[in-house]
Amino acid sequence: MDRIILHSDLNGFYASVECHENPELRGFPVAVCGDAEQRHGIVLAKNELAKRFNVKTGDVIWEAKKKCPDLVIVRADHKKYIRYSKIVNQIYYGYTNKVESFGIDESWLDVSNRGLDIKDGERIANEIRQQIKDEVGITASIGVSWNKIFAKLGSDIKKSDATTVISRENYKQVIFPLPVQDLLYVGRATKAKLNEYKIYTIGQLANSNKEFLKKLMGKNGELIWTFANGLDNSSVSDFIEESATKSVGNSTTCARDLITLDDIKMIITVLAESVSARLREQNLKGQVVHLWVRDKNFKGWGKQQKIKKSTNLSQEIIDTAMQLFESFYHFSQPVRALGITLSDITSNFDIVTNKQLSIFDMLDEKPIDAKDVIKNEALDLAIKSIRGRFGQFAISRGIEHLDKGLTDFNPSETNVIFPVGYLK
Predict the structure, then answer these.
(1) Alpha-carbon distance 374 to 371, whole Å?
(2) Domain coordinates of the chain in residue numbers?
(3) Which CATH class is domain 176-236?
(4) Where does the pLDDT of residue 300 fall: very low under 50, low under 70, confident under 90, or very high at 90 and above?
(5) Would you state the pLDDT for residue 88?
(6) Hey, which bits of 173-265 come out as E strands?
(7) Which residue from 330, 341, 323 is spatially nearest to 271, judged by alpha carbons?
(8) Of the residues 18, 48, 100, 106, which is catalytic?
(9) Alpha carbon 106 to its chain's center
(10) The pLDDT of residue 188
(11) pLDDT higher than threshold 70 for residue 246
(12) Stretch 306-328: mean pLDDT
């Protein structure tokens, strides 16, 4: 029997939360924006009334105001949105423990069970939508299908507060006429390449020759052909449960697009400190640093590097992650999400008692500076102590203050992730 996969997308999430908490905003076009006093005054989310004026995510505030002079601007409050997201996730977990986040406002759910069919999936989706509306005060669009890709397409088809079922019986009628760029991982460059060969719709992509696409675009060509034909069989998984024993990591979908190295370093710093703290809490160290990047078109890349000695020092993780980023990413597209993971995990006990030092460590061209290690260890312990007494946001590094709207989140609490398994 087919699986029953849901994809839930919270409608205009930031703007919906603001309108729920501030009823006086209802009836007005509303845009949630970055800090206009800094250089990041762009639209992060908008309500349905603002959409009617063609206000778009990513518009600079003055552009949005030009389209809609009566637009009400609300400054983003990411702590508030994280709180709402956690409440919604608890609703999801009332139906299944297989919940996979795709950013702060989207999640896949696997509600498969013996004896249930696609109609039961539609019923469950409607129940979830109603529960979100009643308990949280916002709305969601939910797609129901037998695979993750079509479920996500379903949640995009009807906005807002709607359920769309894509079954084996109707998928060609529903999915095939859609523009090819609606498919996950078909970004601007891929769309342009497909259009060169007169592939404009998902149906035309599905009916194309797989080997030709593979030759044209490599692994990605085969991947999107698989998606278009409904052949995706990837599982819905809880990142925390799967990763706990083999690696420690955090990732996030960012509040805005990242367009400079300073932007990247701000997010890497927050993530690295969280990973460092989690390793330290479990008396662990890791030797392989993994960096995942996803651009605004949902295309993802990953790279890893083995460091000379296992570590849980935040500064060493930051430095390695930045080196990895600069070695392969050149901002052809803005970055939307980042993730850092440490693997090859070893306990401190194992390091002390079982691991013999290599003579090559002592002959290395750039020997480890013991003073730096001691200083960074002391810094991490001091930060941990202060945050333990006064909270996560009581202390932060200077670079994080370049844009507090971007860095004002706690990855260890939210653990907002993005799927990278397709591209491994």
Answers:
(1) 5
(2) 1-168, 176-236, 239-423
(3) mainly alpha
(4) confident
(5) 96
(6) 248-258
(7) 341
(8) 106
(9) 9
(10) 79
(11) no
(12) 91
Query: What's domain 1-168's superfamily in CATH?
Result: Reverse transcriptase/Diguanylate cyclase domain (3.30.70.270)
Nearest Cα to Cα of residue 246 among 276, 294, 273, 284: 284
Strand, coil or helix: 177? coil
Q: Is-contact 139 133, C-beta < 8 A?
A: yes
DSSP codes, 364-392: -SS---HHHHHHHHHHHHHHHHHHHHH-G
Q: What is the model's pLDDT at position 348?
A: 56
d(CA 6, CA 153): 10
**Sign of the dihedral defined by the CA atoms of residues 338, 62, 186, 82, in that order:** positive
CA distance 175 to 61: 35
Task: Mark whether 242 is an active-site residue.
Answer: no
Q: Where are the beta strands (DSSP E) in 207-349?
A: 248-258, 284-295, 300-311, 335-343, 346-347
Give the C-alpha separation, 225 to 245, whole Å: 34
323 — pLDDT class (breaks 50, 70, 90): very high
Q: Which amino acid is at 354?
A: N
pLDDT at 244: 42
| Beta-bridge mates of residue 45 | 32
Q: pLDDT (tens digit, 9 = 90+) per residue, 192-240? A: 999 999 999 999 999 999 999 999 988 889 999 999 999 999 888 764 4
Residue in 231, 221, 222, 151 with CA at minimum distance from that of residue 189: 221
State yes or no: pLDDT of 320 exceeds 90.
yes
d(CA 407, CA 267): 6
Contacts of 397 (CB under 8 A, 6+ apart): 269, 273
Q: Specify the 3-state DSSP secondary structure of 219.
A: helix
> With bands split at pLDDT 50, 70 and 90, how would you rate the model's confidence at 357?
very low
Those residues with Cβ within 8 angstroms of residue 356's Cβ, 6 or more apart along the chain or in another chain: none
Under 8 Å CB-to-CB from 400, ≥6 apart: which residues? 266, 269, 270, 407
In the 8-state DSSP scheme, what is residue 186?
-
**What CA–CA distance (Å, rounded) separates 421 from 223?**
12
Q: How far apart are CA 269 and CA 399, in angstroms?
A: 8
CATH domain 239-423 topology? Dna Ligase; domain 1 (3.30.1490)
Helices (H) and strands (E) in the chain, counts: 19, 13
Identify whether the C-beta of residue 6 lies closer than 8 Å to the C-beta of residue 154.
no
What is the DSSP pairing of strand 106-110 with strand 5-10? antiparallel
